[in-house]
Amino acid sequence: MPRSTPKRAARRAKRVKYSPLDCESLWGWQSDDVASAVDWEKLQKAFDDLTAPVLWAEKLTFQKLSQSLPLSFASSAGSKMPLLSMLGIDRTGAGPSLKDSPHFVVSSALMLQASPGKGRGWFAKRTLEAGTLILLERPLVAILDKEWQDEVWADCSSADTTALGIALARSFSSSLDAVLKPFHPQEPTRNSSAESEDEDEDALEGMKEATSSAWQQLSQLSQVAQQRLQEVVRLNALGFYTHSEQLCHNSNFLPLTGSGLFALASGFNHSCEPSVQRYSIGDVTAFVTNQKVDAGTELCITYIEPLSQRRMGLQLKTETCLLKCSIPVACVLRCVLQSILRPASKELAPEQGRNCFVRRSLCEASL
Asked: Who is most buried in 249, 262, 320, 347, counting CB within 10 A?
């Protein structure tokens, strides 16, 4: 049934104001060594500053999160690249005024090219060892789960992508449209609604009204174009989960969970045996190889989202490790960063083994 209307009304009154996204101002670095190019200490300090107040998550929005975690890089990070140039998009006119903070850093060992039967994909230009950080990126458009969880339609199965689609409509611009043109699908193939027959009728009606209200503002787009963009969101959205491999994810970092559309990471296709895993610190998402990848091989991620982390919290078997989480945020962040940067001489351990390794690292960090 619908949730309390006073609470929803209060949340709507505080709804974040969106502005058209200027993708021409977004830029980043192309680097031979992504891990060394990033100033991890500044990122850690920014994260600690964000989460230090007792009620730090109370009024948190995606806009505040992204502003609180600016990316910083070494002066020798690599070649500075506007996002549109990185994607091969030609925008005529005066040169853009680039934002102060970069949006991404991508490995020079990656090449975005056609992938048979899949559209486009990222391929390795040279052999990559396991544990190589190949991309660090923040989303173009995103929304935190906590920003929509008081909506009447929050319990619908597609609530996360619906909320992201609404955020996209409110942030839409011609440059954002140019970035999204190569995204799959190229043509709408079905009704964008993905709800089952078991969904609450009032919730579904509320979802349709919210979606219609957001997209009807874009009168310059045809109904077909609007439907395609909603499907782009549904098929390309990636969740970000801060320290989801930690026992304390559910109690400490759940407010940082959200969904986003990534300009560069959208080029990763799906595999049931992915060669790339992702980790997030807020909306800043790192893509790391989990095995040796030969030159010329396509790099893939898994599109399967860890729903248990989102809906019920991370459920880890305590018999594998008796660690109780009382570890400072800084220690948790340091361990995750160390796990990303740790050189690997062989393929990384399976998931259960990785969880135990992280817990052992946390135990050591807390001593």
From this structure: 262
Per-residue pLDDT at 321 exceeds 50: no
User: Distance between terminal CA atoms of the chain?
Assistant: 48
Q: What is the residue extent of each domain of the chain? A: 5-366
Confidence class for position 9, pLDDT limits 50, 70, 90: very low
Asked if residues 226 and 291 have their Cβ atoms less than 8 Å apart, the reply is: no
Where do the DSSP E strands lie in the chain? 27-31, 79-82, 104-107, 110-115, 119-124, 133-137, 141-144, 238-240, 258-261, 269-270, 276-281, 284-289, 298-301
pLDDT for 1: 42
Which structure tokens are listed for 302? 């898994």
What letter does residue 128 receive in the DSSP assignment? B
Residue 78 in tokens: 């690599």
Q: Which of 271, 279, 287 is nearest to 245 (CA)?
A: 279
CA distance 358 to 338: 10
Single-letter residue type at 356: C
The predicted pLDDT at position 320 comes to 30
Identify the three-state secondary structure at position 299. Answer: strand
In angstroms, the CA 29 to CA 78 distance is 6
Q: How far apart are CA 152 and CA 4, in angstroms?
A: 8
Q: Which pTM does this prediction carry?
A: 0.80
Instruction: Please give the Cα distance from 321 to 361 (Å, whole number).
Output: 12
What is the C-alpha separation between 194 and 153, in angstroms, rounded? 13
Find tokens 């991370």 and name the residue: 314
| CATH architecture of the domain with residue range 5-366 | Beta Complex (2.170)
pLDDT tens-digit map of 102-137? 999 999 999 999 988 888 999 999 999 999 999 999
Give residue-wise pLDDT tens across range 282-307.
999 999 999 999 999 999 999 887 54
Asked if residue 292 lies in contact with residue 130, where contact means CB atoms within 8 angstroms, the answer is yes
- Cα–Cα distance, 105 to 236 (Å, whole number): 20
Cα 266–Cα 268–Cα 271 angle in degrees, nearest 5: 135
